[in-house]
Amino acid sequence: MYDREIDFDIVPMSKQELAQLYAPNLTPHSAVNRLALWIERHPTLSAELAANGYRKTLRMLTSRHVGLILKYLGAP
Predict the structure, then answer these.
(1) In this predicted model, what pLDDT tens digit does every residue of 19-71 receive, in sequence order?
(2) Of 26, 40, 54, 63, which sees the most CB atoms within 10 A?
(3) How far is CA 48 from CA 10, 33, 34, 69, in A?
(4) For 13, phi and psi rounded to 5 degrees?
(5) By the 8 A CB rule, do 33 and 24 touch?
(6) What is the pTM of this model?
(7) Which residues contact 4 (CB under 8 A, 6 or more apart)?
(8) Could you give the count of Cα atoms lying within 13 Å of 30 in the half-sphere of its Cβ?
(9) By CB neighbour count within 10 A (0-12 exposed, 13-18 middle, 19+ buried), where does 64 fall?
(10) Residue 61 DSSP SS3
(11) Which three-class secondary structure state does DSSP give residue 13?
């Protein structure tokens, strides 16, 4: 399904959990803001997430959302 090999469990998780995996050195709030910015600046990722029901106000990500983020941003 995905182009890249990902050694990461693709499961539903909170946006904060995923964001902190990408930026463990930031506060949870800052990590979420950074992830949101990365998503916003990646038009293909943004479009695919939106097509799969993602909204920036969501707190929980589905496994599909997590998979798409990993596909385009790589594993944390």
Answers:
(1) 999 999 999 999 999 999 999 999 999 999 999 999 999 999 999 999 999 99
(2) 54
(3) 17, 19, 19, 10
(4) -160, 165
(5) no
(6) 0.88
(7) 70, 71, 74
(8) 5
(9) middle
(10) strand
(11) strand
